[in-house]
Amino acid sequence: MIKAVQFLNQVQAGYGTDEKMNMEPQSQFGAIGLGMLLKNTMMRNGGDIIGTVICGDNYFLENKDEAIEKLLSMIKAFNPDVVICGPALNYKRYGDCCGYLTEAVIEKLNIPAFAAMSKDNTGTELFRKKIYIIETPNRGGIGLNDSLRKISKFAVKLAQGQPIGSPEEEGYFPQD
């Protein structure tokens, strides 16, 4: 069973919107919020979300180094096989947070990690050449279930060290 940790912002974790944008990093066992949908597809692919790390968008971006260090410590405590940052959909600030955290997990923890967001998210263009980003729709609804299946399959494949196929096969944005 592949053990995954998911990074969510205050909205996707179910804590609210503007009133929780300054939420400091925290962690919870298992899947929460949007992660509950992802957990179902992960289970079908031989994986599970064993923990969730959460941070408000404003807190993360205004205290980037501190937020990343706290989140990395929480992620490390779960001892995951892979880290999934998102799906950020078209929440631009959250997309940036996902990109920065994905880079840090790979560089500092040496744990496979990737992000998920829409093509219109500013984080996609900012990070797609450096990290894998699985494409999602701009909002939930049409296309989200397909994206969650791609995220799940990609997470298991990346964690197992399997060869990664082309962007068309795997659903990530081209890195050129």
TrEMBL record:
- Which key words are in the record? Oxidoreductase, Selenocysteine
- Fetch the InterPro entries from UniProt: Various_sel_PB (IPR010187)
Instruction: Return the Pfam families for the record.
Output: GRDB
Give the molecular function GO annotations: oxidoreductase activity, acting on X-H and Y-H to form an X-Y bond, with a disulfide as acceptor
> Is Oxidoreductase found in the keyword set?
yes
Q: Under which name does UniProt file this protein?
A: Glycine/betaine/sarcosine/D-proline reductase family selenoprotein B
- Organism expressing this protein natively: Thermoanaerobacterium aotearoense SCUT27
From which lineage does this chain's organism come?
Bacteria, Bacillati, Bacillota, Clostridia, Thermoanaerobacterales
